[in-house]
Amino acid sequence: MWIRLSEIPPQGVTVSSPVPLAQLGLVNEAWWTDGPVRIQLLVTRESDLILVDGDISASLKFHCSRCLQECAYAVNGAVHLTLAPAEGGARAEGPHQLQADELEQLYYREGGVETNDVVREQLLLSIPMRVVCRPDCRGLCASCGKNLNEGPCGCPAPAASRLAEQLKRWQSGDA
User: Where are the domains of the chain?
Assistant: First the structure.
């Protein structure tokens, strides 16, 4: 939903709706959802700044990074953003070295903000790099590929590498 700065009333604009992943441009084979992303945002203005506050929630499905079993991950995040105008502000056009105060600053262009862009960004930032089905997931056997959460596979234990053997000798003081 596109919201122009000039059209934001003093009480703000409330954006409350389920948003499908496809509408956010997040069609992805690595993860999916059982339903839409739920958003509850209040967009207000303070002079030429746009303030976005609210909540984003979704129930996402992934393949565990260790054992490849399907697992769920719940996203429940608060959003508190301040966007400044990109035009005419302190921000230089073209490549330049960022100052400390610019690292946390977000900008809007063309006189407004697209709330789907805000939701997409916040959703992506809330997803961990590696999702695991449980903290003690044992993963897959490197030899046969069996899910070790279901029990041992019967493969012989891997031989310790020469580096590991040298490290053990060094730790014990025999090196």
Answer: 2-137, 140-175
